[in-house]
């Protein structure tokens, strides 16, 4: 008996240890990309192109091209004509490691060395960015010498990317549009589904089993199959009452319809597992079904309500298809996902815009999830371990 107990305890410890390791791995896999987006969104745009986010706390090096001043900037000194200056503003803000005259060999000469440009013309570029180009005869021409150089810069973090995204790129308006769509589209189905779930769990009426079967069947209906019929129905109703079809009310109702089957199924499974004695005691004390629902069932069902709120909020917040169909793609109507999609199409090379926009997109769902996550697992599992 003691040996069996010891083996069981050992297995239990190994099992818990394995679960903890698995959770740690998944959390790490999920956190690393998020951390990368956050760090990249705060980096200087030139450094984002030059190196990955994991190098953001060390100096980054990249090859750049520039043009020295034209002949008008030359001065005569000791029988030579000189053009002097600094590649950087302010001087010394970066460090040059090598330079060259051709794009095929941008690092041909080490910093501080003197490069021979033929006909007695020489060029020296120092590590601090200062340069001297000398010639035995006067320089001519309106365009300066083209040079290439490899320069490193200390890590630089800035909030300019967020200022550009939130105030210059139109993301701020789309952010408000997404909140306007998501919050009501999360609350409305919860209110409706809570009443329906209580009725299906604790009230006896004809056709109850059929309604439960219909709700379960609706869970497997693809959203894409219902878009066109639902849009036609809504447009017909809007035309009948003489109201615009592309409104927030339309998308709220659409998301409510798409989310109700899962909401009713989840809430009904949970509510059916609540202790029957509570309901019977309340009925003996003269409580009506509405009073039981408001005073007993709803407070006890908060974990599952929070779980569904997380699901619905994330789904609506990240939605693009339903928003484009029921709300439109105008500048005043475009939700955040639609605006980011437009940016991705026209600004594919501007990584500072894309990473900042991506983090703006995920920050709200992260806040919602971490605010309600303590109820998440409890709400999902409670209905699955009790009979209904």
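Q: What amino acid sequence fits the structure above?
A:
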């Amino acid at each position: 008996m003691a040996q069996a107990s010891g083996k069981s305890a050992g297995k239990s410890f190994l099992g818990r240890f394995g679960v903890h390791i698995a959770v740690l791995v998944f959390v790490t896999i999920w956190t690393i990309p998020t951390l990368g987006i956050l760090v990249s969104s705060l980096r200087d745009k030139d450094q984002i192109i030059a190196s990955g986010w994991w190098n953001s706390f060390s100096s980054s090096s990249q090859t750049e091209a520039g043009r020295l001043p034209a002949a008008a900037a030359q001065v005569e000194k000791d029988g030579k004509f000189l053009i002097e200056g600094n590649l950087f503003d302010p001087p010394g803000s970066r460090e040059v490691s090598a330079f060259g005259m051709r794009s095929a060999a941008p690092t041909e000469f080490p910093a501080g060395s003197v490069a021979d440009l033929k006909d007695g013309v020489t060029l020296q570029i120092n590590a601090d960015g200062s340069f001297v180009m000398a010639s035995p005869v006067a320089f001519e021409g309106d365009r300066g010498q083209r040079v290439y150089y490899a320069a490193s810069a200390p890590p630089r973090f800035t909030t300019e990317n967020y200022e550009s995204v939130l105030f210059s790129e139109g993301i701020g308006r789309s952010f408000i549009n997404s909140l306007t769509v998501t919050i009501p589209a999360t609350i409305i189905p919860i209110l409706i589904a809570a009443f329906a779930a209580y009725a299906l769990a604790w009230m006896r009426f004809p056709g109850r089993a059929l309604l439960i079967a219909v709700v379960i069947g609706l869970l497997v209906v693809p959203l894409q199959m219902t878009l066109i019929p639902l849009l036609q129905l809504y447009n017909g109703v809007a035309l009948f009452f003489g109201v615009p079809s592309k409104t927030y009310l339309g998308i709220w109702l659409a998301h409510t319809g798409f989310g109700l089957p899962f909401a009713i199924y989840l809430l009904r499974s949970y509510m059916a597992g609540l202790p029957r004695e509570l309901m019977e005691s309340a009925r003996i004390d003269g409580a009506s079904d509405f009073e039981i629902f408001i005073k007993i069932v709803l407070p006890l069902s908060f974990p599952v309500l929070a779980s569904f709120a997380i699901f619905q909020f994330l789904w609506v917040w990240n939605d693009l298809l339903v928003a484009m169909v029921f709300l439109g793609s105008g500048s005043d109507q475009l939700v955040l996902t639609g605006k980011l999609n437009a940016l991705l199409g026209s600004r594919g090379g501007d990584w500072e815009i894309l990473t900042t926009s991506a983090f703006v997109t995920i920050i709200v769902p992260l806040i919602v999830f971490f605010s309600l996550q303590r109820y998440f697992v409890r709400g999902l599992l409670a209905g699955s371990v009790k009979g209904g």
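Q: And what stands out in the fold?
A: Residues 67 and 146 are 4 Å apart (CA to CA).
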